[in-house]
Amino acid sequence: MLPVHHPSLELLLDYAAGSTGEAAGLALATHLALCPECREVVAQFESLGGALLEAIEPAAVPSEALDNLLARLDEPVPVPVPVPDRRSPADDATLGPVPQPLRGYIGQDLETIRWKRVMRGVEQADIAVGRGRTGNVRARLLRIGPGVRVPRHTHAGTEMTLVLAGGFSDGDKQYQRGDFSFCDRETDHSPVADDDGECLCLTVIDAPLRLTGPLMRLLNPFIRF
Prior knowledge:
Pfam families: Cupin_7 (PF12973). It comes from Skermanella aerolata. By secondary structure, this protein is of the alpha+beta class. It has a domain at about 110-220: Jelly Rolls (Sandwich), CATH 2.60.120. The protein contains five helices and eleven strands; from the N terminus they run αααααβββββββββββ. It has a six-stranded antiparallel beta sheet, with helices on one face. Strand 1 (about 115-120) and strand 2 (about 120-125) form a beta hairpin. The chain starts with 8 loop residues before the first helix and ends in a 14-residue tail after the last strand.
């Protein structure tokens, strides 16, 4: 089954232009590994970008450009996120719960990951990625038990969620393997995992969640998701 929920065109354009941070780029690249439709969109964006670059007239280089370049040689080099091969819609790198490029970050065996309990039926595991420009970006695996409902919450920033296995419902939308969800400050929701099995997701957030239920909001000073 192919994904039915996709990143926005703006996100795909940012990815094609190489302007996403490492964590967001990881989520988008992993979605591309599972979604031939979005792979084609990114390929078109990249082709368009290449054509525009060829059409641009060369500009004069300021005399201080070389000095500025030499001054940046000691800066850390960002780690590029691998782009899935668009010619291969499914192979051994996309089959199984952990497709590439995520597999390159966490390996294939989910049981060797150090899971941390968040609440009953919900566990998470941090993924080592760069923090991005804001310094607050986090990438995590989230494992939710069958039928478990995540407490109602909103977002102080943005949240990307990619389903790797199982599924969940959020309002009137159903998310399955490969589906991509984007939430922001306007979102106030309480997703619930499907009853027929565990739900495994990759999430990327750039600010803490904020509980909004009548009683749960009292826990905000003590909880950091």
